[in-house]
Design goal:
Elements: H1 3-13, H2 27-37, E1 40-41, H3 54-60, H4 65-73, E2 83-88, E3 90-95, H5 103-108, H6 115-123, H7 127-138, H8 143-150, E4 157-158, E5 164-165, H9 167-177, E6 181-187, E7 190-195, H10 196-199, H11 202-206, H12 211-226, E8 228-229, H13 231-237, H14 242-254, E9 258-261, E10 270-273, E11 285-287, H15 298-305, E12 326-331, E13 334-344, E14 349-357, H16 363-380, E15 385-391, H17 395-402
Parallel strand pairs: 14-15
Antiparallel strand pairs: 1-3, 2-3, 4-5, 6-7, 8-10, 9-10, 11-12, 12-13, 13-14
C-alpha cells in the first residue's frame, strides 16, 4: 500500500471518512463514534474541554455532552449504562461489555498499579476490607467521603506522580484497578466509587475469558479501530505486551481477519483489517485533542502523517515549542497545522496563544478552514469569540481570517 492509502484507511477506521450528521447529533450518533474508536481516554486537564468529549466533537461536530455523560455515569431501565471506566489506553471509557476483557489485567493489578500501592497495603492490611464495607453500606462515595466514614486521621503519602493522596484514596484506586470497585458516576470530574456488582451487568460479570481469549478480542478491536497498523500500533491501543499481541496477530491472520501488507516507507510489516475500507479521498476538517485515539500513539502519528507531535503540558513554559495544550488540525486527510488552545469561560473567549503551519502548506487556505473550525468549537463550548495571539507563523493569517 502507498502511505497515502494507509492514511485514508486509518482515517476511515477512526470515523473521519463519513459525512457528518445534517442535523443535531443524537445519542445513537454519539455512541456510533465508540463503534469506531472503542475507547475514549480520560484526562483531568480542562484547558479547553475534558479529553473524552473532544474526539466525539472532532468526528460529528457539535453535540450534547450530556449524551456522553449519560452513557458513562447514569443508569436506568430505559437507558442502561453503555460505558464504564477502566485502564485501557490509560484511564478510559470503554463499552460496558468490554469490561470483562480486562479481568486478566485486574489480576495483575490486585495490589494496585504501582509499587507504592503495596506499601500502603502492608502498612494498613485491613484498610481494603474497611473501604469495601463503607461503600457497601453507604453506596457510591468519593475517597474523601470514605475516609470521613472511617474517621481516619493519618499522614498523607506521596504517590507515583508526587500528588498528595491519603492511604484511603490509594486503596480506593487500587481496588478500582483490581476490579473490586468501579466508578458509578463523576461529579466535577471526581470519581464516586461503587461496588462493581452494582454497576457492571450480571452477564458481563459472569463472563470470565482466559487471558489469551481476552487479548485476542482486544487485538481484534484494536485492528478494527486502526484499519491498518503495525504490531506496535495494535499493542499500544490497549497497552498490551509484545508477548501477548504477536500470538493474537498470528491467530487473526490464520482466521483471515487480518492480512499482512507492506506500507511504503514503513520499516516493519503492517496488518490490514479484512473489513477496513480505503476511500479515494478524505475531506473535511477536525481539531484533534492531544488524547484523540487517532494520534495518541506519537510514533504512529509520525509514520502516518509525517507529523512530529509531543504534548508539552509537563514541559516548563520557557521550554515549550508550541504551547501548553496543542491541537493538531486535520484537513482533507492530512495534519496541516497545530494550535495552542485555551477556553477562558469567565470572559467567553476561545484563546489561541499560538498557531503553526506545517511545511509546504497553503497558509491562506489552512487559515480559512482553521478559522471556521475554531468558530465551530467556540460555539460548541458556549464561547462568544475567538482571539488569536502572536505566537507562530500562522497567527497573522489566522487573525485576519477570524477578523
Amino acid at each position: 500500500m502507498t502511505l497515502a492509502a494507509a492514511r485514508r484507511t486509518a482515517l476511515a477506521a477512526q470515523g473521519f471518512a463519513g459525512a457528518r450528521p445534517s442535523g443535531p447529533p443524537t445519542r445513537r450518533t454519539v455512541m456510533k463514534v465508540l463503534d469506531s474508536t472503542r475507547l475514549l481516554q480520560l484526562d483531568s486537564v480542562s484547558a479547553v474541554v475534558r479529553a473524552h468529549y473532544a474526539p466525539v466533537f472532532s468526528r460529528i461536530g457539535a453535540y450534547d455532552q450530556g449524551f456522553l455523560d449519560e452513557a458513562a455515569w447514569s443508569h436506568s431501565a430505559r437507558r442502561p449504562r453503555r460505558l464504564v471506566e477502566y485502564w485501557a489506553h490509560e484511564a478510559a471509557l470503554i463499552p460496558v461489555e468490554d469490561w470483562s476483557l480486562m479481568r486478566w489485567r485486574m489480576v495483575d493489578y490486585r495490589l494496585g498499579r504501582w509499587r507504592g500501592f503495596r506499601e500502603v497495603f502492608e502498612r494498613n492490611p485491613m484498610l481494603a476490607d474497611d473501604v469495601l464495607s463503607v461503600v457497601k453500606e453507604f453506596g457510591p462515595s468519593t475517597a474523601g467521603e470514605v475516609e470521613r466514614h472511617l474517621e481516619l486521621d493519618r499522614p498523607r503519602a506521596k504517590d507515583h506522580w508526587g500528588w498528595n493522596h491519603s492511604d484511603t484514596k490509594i486503596v480506593c484506586e487500587a481496588l478500582f484497578s483490581a476490579g473490586e470497585l468501579t466508578v458509578s458516576k463523576r461529579v466535577g470530574f471526581q470519581r464516586y466509587y461503587d461496588l462493581t456488582g452494582a454497576v457492571i451487568p450480571a452477564e458481563v460479570l459472569a463472563h470470565e475469558p482466559s487471558e489469551s481469549e481476552a487479548v485476542l478480542e482486544l487485538v481484534r478491536r484494536a485492528a478494527r479501530a486502526h484499519g491498518i497498523g503495525t504490531e506496535t500500533d495494535l499493542r499500544d491501543y490497549y497497552r498490551l505486551k509484545r508477548s501477548q499481541t504477536e500470538p493474537a496477530i498470528a491467530e487473526l491472520l490464520a482466521l483471515g481477519e487480518l492480512e499482512q501488507v507492506t506500507v511504503q516507507g514503513w520499516d516493519r510489516p503492517a496488518y490490514l483489517h479484512a473489513e477496513a475500507r480505503t476511500p479515494r479521498r478524505v475531506a473535511g476538517s477536525a481539531l484533534l485533542c492531544p488524547f484523540d485515539p487517532l494520534i495518541f500513539f506519537r510514533d504512529r502519528t509520525e509514520r502516518l502523517f509525517d507529523f512530529h507531535y509531543r504534548i508539552e503540558i509537563y514541559t516548563p513554559e520557557h521550554k515549550r515549542v508550541h504551547g501548553y495544550y496543542v491541537f493538531p488540525f486535520l484537513l482533507d486527510g492530512e495534519l496541516v497545522a497545530r494550535v495552542d488552545l485555551r477556553a477562558e469561560r469567565s470572559t467567553g473567549r476561545l484563546l489561541v496563544p499560538g498557531a503553526f503551519l506545517e511545511p509546504g502548506r497553503d497558509a491562506t487556505r489552512v487559515a480559512g478552514e482553521l478559522a471556521r473550525a475554531l468558530r465551530d468549537m467556540a460555539d460548541w463550548l458556549g464561547l462568544d469569540t475567538v482571539q488569536v495571539g502572536e505566537k507562530g507563523d500562522l497567527a497573522p493569517e489566522l487573525r485576519r481570517e477570524i477578523a
